[in-house]
Amino acid sequence: MEKEIKIRIRDLHKSFGKKNVLNGVNLDLYKGESLVVIGGSGTGKSVLIKCIQGLLTPDSGSIEIDDIEIVNENPDVIDRMHSKMGMLFQGGALFDSLTVWENVAFDLIQNRGFNRKEAKIVAVKVLRQVGLTEDIADLYPSELSGGMQKRVGLARAVITRPEIIFFDEPTTGLDPIMADVINDLIIESAKDLGATTLTITHDMASARKIADKIAMLYQGKIIWYGTVKELDKTTNPYVRQFINGSSKGPIKVEK
Amino acid sequence: MIIRLGEVFLRTLGKPLVKFLYSLGDLTAFVVKAIYHCFVPPFYFKLFFKQVLDIGFYSLPVVGLTTLFAGMVIALQTYSGFSGFKAESVIASVVLISVTRELAPVLSALMVSGRIGAAMAAEIGTMRVTEQIDALVTLSTNPFKYLVAPRLWAGLLVLPLLVLVGDIIGIFGGYVVGVYKLGFNPANYITATFQDLQYIGIISGLVKAAVFGFIISMMGCYHGYKSKGGAQGVGNATTNAVVSSSILILIFNYLITEMFFSR
Fold it and tell me: Which of B138, B141, B151 to mutate to test the interface with A (most CBs of A within 10 A)?
């Protein structure tokens, strides 16, 4: 049986001025699957994720989520899509004027009609799920370490039990042990929710751990797509160079 | 040769002109969108009241001091300029007119622009560069309704109240100098002040205040919202917010005065 496609991207183009960042991206994300997009800095990974979220408007091409086109759609359609999505931002993007629990419960209070008392109970429960204790609920994000902020960001992303979760460089800036803890939490939460996830990263250890499928983005196009096992066997010189982290190869980096 | 020079001239002129027109279009689109979202629910009343407190209550000391000294200095200057000539009533009247029509609205707005416009641009700018605004969108919350609309409403409604307080303090400043330094009769000074009280002067001052409040909030939000490039970008946004709102305040001050008093 064909697996159901959750997100279908076709011939996506996006440029900033004269710089073509996305140059005809084609990608399918199947329901319940974890796709990791790898690629060097400046290859358009973040732009891709922002286009899917409706934060940037592509120049041309199509993005369908559950068979509904979202490119150039009206804000209501995109808003409805957002209620199905959660996102963990690279820097956490926690609201620094709100406390930890208010951050986690933001969507519940603003859009889902929870009163503050109920929302706090749910928020504390989700904070526990990501390994944080109740006593940090009333602190402000600036009082937390980088790893804790990532966990709070994760709690905020999963509290509404979204169908799709995006992870933008989830392990960047963390020590290897904390990075692995975050990887485990990502896998656990996705499994628990049965969610489809799209992660962008250049951390190969993280990619291998959380991916069902891996896609490599280079010069605005997907140049390789396959499973983790296939990744290790591939002879694609671009992928080999990237996973080996070598400065010699077809990928030229400005020095 | 002349054609070639003309071409060079047009080219040098063209690029900044296109850039200027682009910014103007961008600003206009932002203003239209912001005003639209001011009238469309959901409304965030709690955030509005927080802004009222920030813009209004916490600006009271600054506005009070500014208008107090403005009123005092006008009384002193007028006395030295008009000495001996029906001084009491002239001074009371000059203080009244200059404070309510010009000094209280303009000076208060400039002070509030430095205090609040800069803070708004810095806060929203930091939210922009740390992806907090993107996070708002992904949490199904419109940043225009959540961040911009409460600030615009607060600026528009609170500045007139501030200026009204500033009017009273400014006139009191004139009274203090008149009575305690220049030795005028307090009762005569107060009578002279009330005799010259014109509603048009006070109303024009309050209309100015509302427009200035709107300008301060709009410029703070616009420059913050459009800032990019980390700490330096936020710094630039803050400077631009204060400079542009100060210039706009002075321009609109003239235009509104023209509207009310040119006959």
Answer: B138
